[in-house]
Predict the structure.
Amino acid sequence: MGGRARGQTVSRVGASLSDLVGEAQASTRCVDLQRLLAWMKTHEPLLLVDVREPDEFCAGHIPGALSIPRGLLEPAADREYAARDPELADARWRRVVLYCDCPTGARAAFAAEVLQRMGFQHVFYLAGGIGMWQAEGLPMELREDASRCYRRRGRLSGDVVG
């Protein structure tokens, strides 16, 4: 019979989600909200990327953020991929700040790790993500009708097709 004897421990094979998040955070840079706001005030080239899913983005996002869900990040950032997002693919030397909705910033940290591997030089993930932004009462952009968000060349937009 399968199973284990009483008192026998199971050795873990492979990494847990917590391990993976910790590794991603250790290999990337985190920016706090105050520093992000200071960067935004200087009007230096900065690209904000929301790595949440389209419905999450449409429900509310940081003004001016580009929506690229975590699952579409690699093709969107690849300069050689036909469906790339030009704004992201050409941002290798700009400051890129990624955010998501979880307090640990897991999706954003994973995304930052990938962009670094793809040659992006100044990649950060936002500590506390969109939740910290909202907690501070900062402005949000909303899309009342999430069905109006659509994919175009691997990019999501709230624009309405005319």
Summary: Confidence is low (pLDDT under 50) at residues 150-162. Strands lie at 29-31, 46-50, 66-67, 95-99, 122-126, 150-152, 155-157. The first strand starts at residue 29 and ends at 31.
